[in-house]
Amino acid sequence: MNANIDLSHVSLQTERLYIRPWKIEDLEDFYAYASIDGVGQMAGWNPHTSIDESRRILDSFIADKKEFALELQENRKVIGSLGLEELYTDIGEPYTRLKGREIGYVLSMDYWGNGLMPEAVSRVVQFCFEEEKLDFLQCSHSVENIQSQRVIEKCGFKFVKELMRRGINGVEHMSRFYVLNNAYIVA
Ligand SMILES: CC(C)(COP(=O)(O)OP(=O)(O)OC[C@H]1O[C@@H](n2cnc3c(N)ncnc32)[C@H](O)[C@@H]1OP(=O)(O)O)[C@@H](O)C(=O)NCCC(=O)NCCS
Known about the structure:
Layout: E1 12-13, E2 17-21, H1 27-34, H2 51-64, E3 67-72, E4 78-85, E5 100-107, H3 116-131, E6 136-142, H4 146-154, E7 158-166, E8 172-181
Parallel strand pairs: 5-6
Antiparallel strand pairs: 1-2, 2-3, 3-4, 4-5, 6-8, 7-8
Helix pairs in contact: 1-2
This protein binds coenzyme A.
């Protein structure tokens, strides 16, 4: 089942990143990476076609309180997002009775391949298990998205099942679902 989440006052740090709530001042950085072709599609949404579209989505990030901005310490730019989304699918017992969320993420194409997302995901996993006391986390990627598969594997998630998944842009992909248990759960 879905854990209750409110990230509006949560700020975390890694070696290279500040992981913190979104602010309206992040709009230009958000539009800069969300409007690039080939980024959002891998996560099930289409590139933003106007700054107004980015503003609407940024407003929903702030209102929903389940989305982190990823700010690069080096230049103070927001270069991605990481959300604790509602679970897309029930992966059966014992998870039906336990508290979990699905991690979703996107990184600006300019920064791919430097291990930044595994760094962010690992820190958020630690936060979810040690501070929020979630029982488990899920992750998923479309079967074509090897980049995301590598992030999930590097962060220690275990494969559970394949299922067709419809993105918010309406496009369906065969997707692979994974789980990571908080240490006290016996798998
Ligand atoms: C998935 C994503 C977040 C990975 O973030 P990242 O910080 O680049 O992750 P890593 O540096 O660990 O790289 C992961 C894999 O991407 C691949 N990769 C590395 N550099 C790359 C580049 N410049 N272009 C394409 N793929 C690249 C490699 O396979 C790498 O795996 P490896 O470390 O085993 O070689 C990023 O590619 C992204 O934002 N993609 C678009 C959105 C998306 O797919 N979101 C997830 C939806 S499920």
